[in-house]
C-alpha cells in the first residue's frame, strides 16, 4: 500500500507547476492557470503532512515552491481578491504557517497578517457568522467552516492571543440552525435572510444532505480539535459536536465498502453513487479524531475500512499512471442567476464526476498519513 500511494502522490507533483497543478481539475477543464485557491490549498496541506510523516522533503519542497510563486515580499498574494470576500480563498493560507516556521521569511508572516485582517472584515449574518461569499449574502455553507475557521484558529494560536470565542460562536449557530434533529446530519446551506431561491422560507435551510458538505464540516471539527488550545473555553462543547456528527454519519456507511453516498441519506436511489471525496473526508476525520482521543477507538477501525474501500475500488491504473476516481467536481447553491444549483437531489447527482481532483485526493492522502502515524 505504501509504495502505491506514495508513487501516486509523487507522480501528481511531477506533473504539476505552481500555476498548473495536476489536481486542480476545475482549472484544467477550464484551460486556465491556477490562482490562489482552496483546491490547491487542500493538496498542499496534505503534502506538508506527508513530509512530516515520511521525512521525504520532496512533498514540502513543492508546497514551498507554490508559496514562493504567490506570496510577494510585502506579504501581498498574487490573484487573491479581497473584495470578493470568498471564504474559500482562506484555506490555502494554512500553508503559510509551516512555510514560515521552516524558513523564517517574514513575507509569509505578513501574508498571514493580511489574510487575517481581510477575514475579520468578512460580511456577517445578523447572528455573527461569515457570509460564504459576497455573491451569497447572508448565507452560511458547511464548506465555509473548513475554509475559514481552522485558518482563523491557526492564526490566533501562532500570532494572536489564542482567542477562539468567535470560532465557537459560529459553530454553535451552525449546529443550532443546520443540524437535522432526526438524523443528526447537517444541511448543506443556511440563508439567515430566508431570501435565497433554494432556501426553505421558514428555516432558511437547503433541501438535502450533500456528502462533501458534511465532509468539509467533519474535517473542520477534526482540525479544530487539534488546533484549539487544551484550555480553550468551550473546547469540550466542540468535541461533543464532533462526536455527535461522527456517530450520526456512520449509520449511512455502505456495509461492504465503508464509503458514503453523494446524497448521504439516499443510498440506492437511482443516480446516487458512493463518492470518493466526501468519503475520504469523513474517514480522515474519524482517523484523526481517534488519534487525538476525541473519538473512541472504534472510529479508527471505521475510518480505515472506508479508506481501504476507496483504495480497493477507486485508485486504479490508467496505463502507467494511477487515477483516483469518482470525485464530484463541484457543487453549490445558486447564486440567483444559476438556478440549476437548487439543492435538489437531481442537482447533486448531475454534477460532473472526475479523477484526481484535490477535493478527493487531498483527504485521501491525509487518511494515509493518519494510518502511517498509527503504525
Which terms would index this structure?
single chain; 375 residues; mainly alpha; Glycosyltransferase; two-stranded antiparallel sheet
CATH class: Mainly Alpha
Give the topology string: H per helix, E per strand. HHHHHHEHHEHHHHEEEHEH
Shape: globular
Ends distance = 13 Å
Biggest pleated sheet? 2 strands, antiparallel
Total strands: 6
What percent strand? under 5%
Q: Using the coordinates shown, work out and report the CATH topology.
A: Glycosyltransferase
Give the name of the CATH architecture.
Answer: Alpha/alpha barrel
> What proportion of the residues is helical, as a percent range?
40-55%
Distinct helical segment count: 14
Please state the structural category: mainly alpha
Mean pLDDT, all residues: 97
**What are the low-pLDDT stretches, counting only 5+ consecutive residues below 50?**
none
Rg, Å, rounded: 19 Å
Give the count of structural domains. Answer: 1
| Strand arrangement, major sheet | 1-2
Description:
It is built from 14 helices and 6 strands. With 375 residues, it is mainly alpha-helical. The strands form 3 sheets. It has a two-stranded antiparallel sheet with strand order 1-2. It is globular and about 50 Å long. The two termini are 13 Å apart. The mean pLDDT is 97.
Amino acid at each position: 500500500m505504501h509504495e502505491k500511494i506514495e508513487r501516486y502522490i509523487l507522480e501528481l507533483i511531477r506533473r504539476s507547476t505552481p500555476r498548473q497543478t495536476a489536481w486542480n481539475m476545475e482549472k484544467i477543464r477550464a484551460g486556465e492557470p491556477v490562482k490562489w485557491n482552496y483546491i490547491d490549498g487542500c493538496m498542499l496541506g496534505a503534502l506538508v503532512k506527508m513530509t512530516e510523516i515520511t521525512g521525504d522533503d520532496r512533498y514540502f519542497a513543492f508546497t514551498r515552491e507554490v508559496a514562493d510563486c504567490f506570496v510577494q515580499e510585502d506579504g501581498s498574494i498574487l490573484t487573491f481578491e479581497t473584495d470578493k470576500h470568498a471564504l474559500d480563498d482562506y484555506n490555502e493560507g494554512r500553508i503559510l504557517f509551516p512555510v514560515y516556521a521552516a524558513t523564517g521569511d517574514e513575507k509569509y508572516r505578513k501574508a498571514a497578517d493580511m489574510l487575517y485582517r481581510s477575514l475579520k472584515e468578512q460580511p456577517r449574518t445578523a447572528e455573527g457568522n461569515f457570509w460564504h461569499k459576497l455573491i451569497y449574502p447572508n448565507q452560511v455553507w458547511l464548506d465555509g467552516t473548513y475554509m475559514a475557521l481552522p485558518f482563523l484558529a491557526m492564526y490566533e494560536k501562532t500570532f494572536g492571543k489564542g482567542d477562539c470565542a468567535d470560532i465557537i460562536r459560529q459553530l454553535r449557530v451552525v449546529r443550532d440552525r443546520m443540524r437535522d434533529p432526526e438524523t443528526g446530519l447537517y444541511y448543506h446551506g443556511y440563508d439567515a435572510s430566508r431570501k435565497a431561491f433554494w432556501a426553505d422560507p421558514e428555516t432558511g435551510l437547503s433541501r438535502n444532505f450533500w456528502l462533501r458538505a458534511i465532509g468539509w464540516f467533519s474535517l473542520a471539527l477534526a482540525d479544530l480539535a487539534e488546533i484549539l488550545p487544551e484550555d480553550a473555553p468551550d473546547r469540550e462543547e466542540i468535541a461533543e459536536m464532533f462526536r455527535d456528527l461522527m456517530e450520526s454519519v456512520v449509520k449511512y456507511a455502505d456495509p461492504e465498502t465503508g464509503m458514503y453516498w453523494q446524497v448521504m441519506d439516499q443510498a440506492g436511489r437511482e443516480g446516487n453513487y458512493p463518492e470518493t471525496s466526501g468519503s475520504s473526508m469523513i474517514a480522515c476525520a474519524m482517523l484523526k479524531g481517534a488519534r487525538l482521543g476525541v473519538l473512541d477507538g472504534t472510529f479508527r477501525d471505521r475510518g480505515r475500512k472506508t479508506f481501504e474501500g476507496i483504495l480497493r475500488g477507486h485508485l486504479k491504473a490508467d496505463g502507467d499512471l494511477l487515477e483516483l476516481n469518482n470525485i464530484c467536481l463541484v457543487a453549490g447553491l445558486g447564486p440567483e442567476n444559476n438556478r440549476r444549483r437548487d439543492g435538489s437531489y437531481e442537482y447533486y447527482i448531475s454534477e460532473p464526476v472526475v479523477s484526481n481532483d484535490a477535493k478527493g485526493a487531498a483527504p485521501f492522502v491525509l487518511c494515509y498519513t493518519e494510518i502511517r502515524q498509527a503504525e
